[in-house]
């Protein structure tokens, strides 16, 4: 039998597993939990009332959180011509073409985001089996296939979040760090919640959210009462 650490026991006792909370109360509880020896991310899991097997019901989108995510991300950019210098100037960690593709294949550098100008997609498209499962395949809907490389990099650095549901109809997304203030975490969550809600498929009748829970990187999840949002 796996032994439960004192820290885990302490954190589990702070919330009632059978109870749902307002998002404000849940954030307060998360901030009183014993954390790891690093600044943990705060994440949300949105369980949606969709059928992910129907393409028209799948949800994806992006939103710039008002207070960012607090996460330092590594950005790779596929670009040619003047966009190469633009990408370097505005903070891309690596800019290239075949050389960048090789790095991704060998996983020499692990990227959090890949941006591509349209003319590079012939090369980028071949990386779909690698980038797709990681959720970082460039996509026009996310603003990561774009002529405006500068804007895409700047938004990513400022805290733009891309989201999409998985095969179980759940959207997992980060909305800050545990050292953010309660109000900043609340405002980030509400921005993300409302943006996903606005993406509700026209074919879907009734409610969108079945269940929502929030947690930190290492903490147990706290269920949110959707009726209070």
TrEMBL record:
Q: Which PROSITE patterns match?
A: RIBOSOMAL_L1 (PS01199)
* Keywords in alphabetical order: Repressor, Ribonucleoprotein, Ribosomal protein, RNA-binding, rRNA-binding, Translation regulation, tRNA-binding
Q: Could you give the subunit structure recorded for this chain?
A: Part of the 50S ribosomal subunit.
Xref: Pfam families: Ribosomal_L1
Q: Which residues form a coiled coil?
A: none
* Organism, as annotated: Buchnera aphidicola
What is the documented function of this protein?
Answer: Binds directly to 23S rRNA. The L1 stalk is quite mobile in the ribosome, and is involved in E site tRNA release. Protein L1 is also a translational repressor protein, it controls the translation of the L11 operon by binding to its mRNA.
Give the SUPFAM superfamilies listed for this entry: Ribosomal protein L1
Protein family: Belongs to the universal ribosomal protein uL1 family.
Task: Choose one Gene Ontology CC annotation of this protein and give it.
Answer: cytosolic large ribosomal subunit
- Kindly provide the name given to this protein in its UniProt entry: Large ribosomal subunit protein uL1
For this protein, the record's InterPro entries field holds:
Ribosom_uL1_bac-type (IPR005878), Ribosomal_uL1 (IPR002143), Ribosomal_uL1-like (IPR023674), Ribosomal_uL1/biogenesis (IPR028364), Ribosomal_uL1_3-a/b-sand (IPR016095), Ribosomal_uL1_CS (IPR023673)
Q: Does the keyword rRNA-binding apply?
A: yes
Lineage, highest ranks first: Bacteria, Pseudomonadati, Pseudomonadota, Gammaproteobacteria, Enterobacterales
User: What GO biological process, any one, is recorded here?
Assistant: translation
Q: Where are the transmembrane segments?
A: none
A molecular function (GO) held by this record is: rRNA binding
| Domain of life according to the entry | Bacteria
Q: Which CDD domains match?
A: Ribosomal_L1
């Amino acid at each position: 039998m796996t032994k439960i650490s004192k820290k885990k026991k302490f954190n589990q006792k702070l919330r009632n597993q059978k109870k749902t909370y307002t998002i404000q109360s849940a954030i307060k509880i998360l901030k009183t939990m014993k954390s790891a020896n690093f600044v943990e991310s705060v994440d949300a899991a949105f369980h949606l009332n969709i059928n992910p097997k129907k393409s028209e019901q799948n949800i994806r989108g992006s939103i710039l959180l008002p207070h960012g995510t607090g996460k330092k991300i590594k950005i790779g950019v596929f670009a040619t011509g003047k966009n190469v210098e633009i990408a370097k100037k505005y903070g891309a960690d690596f800019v290239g073409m075949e050389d960048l593709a090789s790095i991704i294949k060998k996983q020499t550098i692990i990227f959090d985001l890949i941006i591509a100008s349209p003319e590079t997609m012939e090369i980028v498209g071949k990386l779909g089996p690698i980038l797709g499962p990681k959720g970082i395949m460039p996509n026009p809907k996310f603003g990561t296939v774009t002529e405006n490389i500068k804007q895409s990099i700047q938004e990513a650095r400022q805290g733009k979040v891309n989201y999409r549901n998985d095969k179980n109809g759940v959207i997992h997304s980060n909305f800050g760090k545990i050292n953010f203030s309660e109000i900043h975490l609340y405002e980030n969550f509400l921005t993300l919640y409302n943006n996903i809600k606005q993406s509700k498929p026209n074919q879907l009748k009734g409610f969108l959210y079945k269940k929502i829970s929030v947690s930190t990187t290492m903490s147990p999840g706290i269920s949110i009462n959707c009726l209070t949002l």
